[in-house]
Amino acid sequence: MNGDIALDRIRIVLSRTSHPGNIGAAARAMKTMGLTRLVLIEPASFPDPIAEARASGASDILENACVVASLEEALDGTVLSAAVTARRRERSVPVRGARDAAPELVAFAASGDVALVFGTETSGLTNDEVERCSMPVAIPANPAFSSLNLGSAVQLLCYELRMAALSPPPPAEPLPDLATFEEIEGFHRHLERAMTASGFYDPANPKRLLQRLRRLFGRIRLEKEEVNILRGIVAALERKPD
Predict the structure, then answer these.
(1) What is the C-alpha to C-alpha distance for residues 129 and 143, in angstroms, rounded to an integer?
(2) SS3 labels along 114-132
(3) What is the crossing angle of helices 20-32 and 150-166, to 10°?
(4) What string of H, E and C letters represents the secondary structure of 163-217?
(5) For tag attachment on the chain, is the N or C end more exposed, with fewer CB atoms within 10 Å?
(6) More confident residue, 235 or 220
């Protein structure tokens, strides 16, 4: 697949950015590496002249940015998403390094849109946001001083994506037909309804069950057929008489 086409299918998603200057810096970082699709989840201020000034010529990225109200909207239609996080979380899906993750993101861009999700400047992404993405990704910074501003983090990830896109492709292998974000979310909602109706899951006393199930299924790349099989099993169990 042409590298430029792959980059065109990669979304940079910024969640609840508090300072407009960081949006502009991210847009500039994207344009220098050939990425164009910026999605903003509930930015504190946008559009904003500060963002325009910090973009330094990447005004077209800002003008075409998509502003949404939730992570679900930001990931609509994606086949793969990566949550950029510096925090280690218990029982989480294994964290990938930025350089290791970039080729996989670029490869799956051949199948559809992929997304790279960044959190707030102060606290990053929430546990729920990380769990709704396909994989957690970290920048291997100095552990004694790992703080990066948002624009720098976006620049580093966009650089790795560009290098992966421009590298000679490996021998062609058929890619799995991955389930989309909406299909996976539909399965989780279906499973939750069935568990609640059966009495197995008590919403008043959840005990982190739903989070554990997300981590369980998040350890693999669910394909469309696999999601259909899982939903078929759940539907059959729902119909089974007591």
Answers:
(1) 23
(2) EEEEECECCCECCHHHHHC
(3) 20
(4) HHHHCCCCCCCCCCCECCHHHHHHHHHHHHHHHHHHCCCCCCCCCCHHHHHHHHH
(5) C
(6) 235
CB of 49 within 8 A of CB of 24? no
Q: Which of 226, 15, 44 is nearest to 117 (CA)?
A: 15
Question: What is the C-alpha to C-alpha distance for residues 84 and 129, in angstroms, rounded to an integer?
Answer: 10
Burial of 84 (0-12, 13-18, 19+ CB in 10 A): buried
The tokens describing 189, both together, are 């909602």
125, 119 in Cβ contact below 8 A? yes
| Closest by Cα among 127, 153, 150 to 51 | 150
- pTM for this model (two decimals): 0.83
* Residue 61 near residue 29 (C-beta atoms within 8 A): no
Omega of the bond leading into 47 within 30 degrees of 0 (cis):
yes
Element (H, E) at 60: helix 59-63
CA gap 72, 42 in Å, rounded: 12
Please choose, from the candidates 136, 135, 138, the residue with its C-alpha nearest in 3D space to the C-alpha of residue 220.
Answer: 135
Give me the percent of the chain exceeding a pLDDT of 70: 93
Is the per-residue pLDDT at 2 higher than 70?
Answer: no
pLDDT for 173 beyond 80: no
> In the 8-state DSSP scheme, what is residue 91?
T
